């Protein structure tokens, strides 16, 4: 059986968990706290980041986009109409563009600030940078998320799913990052009905159930977090 090294509130890890669930795969999940920089994990992935997908035969595949490309290359054709990276070259470009948008831009603007300041620092030792949250970073993330929410709403208003007619990696990446912010109550859903309707659709998919069950010790989620009709 394959193994996924992940951290429950790492948005990149959440993306890969959604991808695997949509593909009908149930790997062994191993929680990895990347800030601990375990020697055995660094041997596997010198970057020290999650997620890392490990095939049963031992092939190590690190990073959200590398994992997504690998899974499409090895399992995508068998998914037929449920393939998460389209066959059409132009459509593939759009999906990859949006993957960059959420995994890089949204992460840098919003989700990395929020999960590090509000979650990771609670469990990190002082030598690793743990301690009280930086409120200026949190305020920046809360301001930035409004811009990104409007963009999600703009895409959702024009298309059936964010990248086009069908569910793709783009939707799963956006949902993974937004779900972390949503747990913390930092997504102003009332500011964009199109974005909210899109998120309600994807949040209702079976692949999302395990994410909605995640909890941070000592920190309850926003009241609407697991509510499918929020």
Automatic annotation (TrEMBL):
Pfam short name (any one): GST_N_2
Listed CDD domains: GST_C_family
Organism taxonomic ancestry: Bacteria, Pseudomonadati, Pseudomonadota, Alphaproteobacteria, Hyphomicrobiales
Entries under PROSITE patterns matching the protein: GLUTAREDOXIN_2, GST_CTER, GST_NTER
InterPro entries on file: Glutathione-S-Trfase_C-like (IPR010987), Glutathione-S-Trfase_C_sf (IPR036282), Glutathione_S-Trfase (IPR040079), Glutathione_S-Trfase_N (IPR004045), GST_C (IPR004046), Thioredoxin-like_sf (IPR036249)
Domain GST N-terminal, chain residue ranges per copy: 1-79
All copies of domain GST C-terminal, residue ranges: 88-225
Subunit: Homodimer.
Protein name: Glutathione S-transferase family protein
Transmembrane segments: none
Organism: Chelatococcus albus
Gene3D superfamilies in the cross-refs: 1.20.1050.10, Glutaredoxin
């Amino acid at each position: 059986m394959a193994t996924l090294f992940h951290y429950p509130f790492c948005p990149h890890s959440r993306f890969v968990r959604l991808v695997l669930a949509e593909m009908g795969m149930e790997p062994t999940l191993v929680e990895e706290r990347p800030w601990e920089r375990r020697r055995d994990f660094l041997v596997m992935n010198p970057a020290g980041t999650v997620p890392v997908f490990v095939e049963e035969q031992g092939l190590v595949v690190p990073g959200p986009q590398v994992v997504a490309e690998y899974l499409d290359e090895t399992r995508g054709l068998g998914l037929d109409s449920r393939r998460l990276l389209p066959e059409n070259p132009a459509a593939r470009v759009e999906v990859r563009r949006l993957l960059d948008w959420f995994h890089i831009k949204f992460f840098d603007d919003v989700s990395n600030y929020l999960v590090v300041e509000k979650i990771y620092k609670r469990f990190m030792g002082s030598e690793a940078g743990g301690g009280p949250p930086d409120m200026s970073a949190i305020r920046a993330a809360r301001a930035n998320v409004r811009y990104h929410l409007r963009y999600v709403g703009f895409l959702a208003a024009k298309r059936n799913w964010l990248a086009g007619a069908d569910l793709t990696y783009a939707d799963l990446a956006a949902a993974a990052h937004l779900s972390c912010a949503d747990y913390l109550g930092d997504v102003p859903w009332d500011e964009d009905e199109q974005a909210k309707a899109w998120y309600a659709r994807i949040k209702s998919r079976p692949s999302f159930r395990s994410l909605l069950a995640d909890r941070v010790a000592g920190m309850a989620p926003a009241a609407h977090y697991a509510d499918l009709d929020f």
